[in-house]
Amino acid sequence: MSDEPYEFLVERLIMALAAQLGATEPADLAPEAVDALSDLNRSETDLIFGHAGHLAHYDRPPHVDTLMELLTAIQRREAAAGAPILPGDEVRLVGELPASLADYNADALRETAFTVRYVGDDETIDIQPHRTDDYFIETVPVTAVKLTHNQ
Question: With contact defined as beta carbons under 8 Å apart, do 98 and 82 qualify?
Fold first, then answer.
């Protein structure tokens, strides 16, 4: 069975949540939605932010950026106290690039600002370029990045 119908469904659900944000002032998620979107694991986070990033990068539908910011805020509240890097922080790649990024231009990657999307308990983080640059999500060791801006 192809994953394509599910991928389309994820994008539709993201657009529906974003549309709901446009109907409230200020834009906010219902407490029940916050509960449902709390405690996301790595694959769930990558799925949501990957699709939302794709939509924001190519289509720019209203309120998807706001949805991504609200999801990040939920993740930050759930992060371990005192963690040096949190979801939403901006980082840049430093040192030797992870093998998973070997197909990309190393100089361009080092100049790219990334947003932390997920902080693992295994000394890795998932990063995503700013939506105007690209939308892929990659897992890298914490030692492969330098914090440039706390959210």
Answer: no
pLDDT tens digit string along 95-138?
889 898 999 999 999 999 999 999 999 999 999 998 777 889 99
20: Cα separation from own chain's centroid:
20
How far is residue 120's CA from residue 139's CA, in Å, rounded to a whole number?
9
pTM score, two decimals?
0.90
Structure tokens at 94: 């430093």
Reading the block at residue 75, the tokens are 């993740």
Nearest to 16 by CA among 50, 69, 61: 61
| Nearest-angstrom CA–CA distance, 48 and 113 | 20
Phi, psi (rounded to 5 degrees) for 40: -75, 140
Query: DSSP label at 121?
Result: T
Give the CA dihedral 20, 136, 111, 78, nearest 10 degrees: 60
3-state helix, strand, coil in the chain (%, to 5): 45, 15, 35
> Both tokens of residue 126?
């998932």
DSSP state of 96: S
